[in-house]
Predict the structure of YokE-like PH domain-containing protein.
Amino acid sequence: MGHPLRPRTTDDHPRRPHPLSARLPRFDETVQYDVIRDTLMPEEQIDGVYASDSAGIALCGITNRRVILLDTAFPGGRAALITAPYSRITTVSYVSAEDEPIFSNTVAIQVGRTFYEVTCRGPEQAAEIHDLITWHLID
């Protein structure tokens, strides 16, 4: 498969469109979409809702104002719905093992000193999460 830090070429990875070009929010299951929808503030819109296979983070919702994470491994056997406004997100990154390509299924979101990992169902979902958050951070 090659070295994970090998630069992308247009043959290996076609250029991705702007993540908001689809206009309709993407989501895996209606119940997950409903969890995020029920937390919306006035004038807030959902960009995407993604299920996660991570040990702790079960759901990642991305809106035009924040990232919403469902942490099912909260201390005491509880779950927490975490809001991370873009102004508090420091970095978004791909996380990969030594034998995986750098553009993997896992995205890490740093809020302050805390990292939250979202393991997606495929590299396309990971790219959407990464790109949506990146667009909001640099826009």
Helices lie at 30-37, 123-138. The beta strands are 26-27, 46-51, 57-63, 66-74, 78-85, 89-95, 106-111, 114-119. The chain has a mean pLDDT of 84.
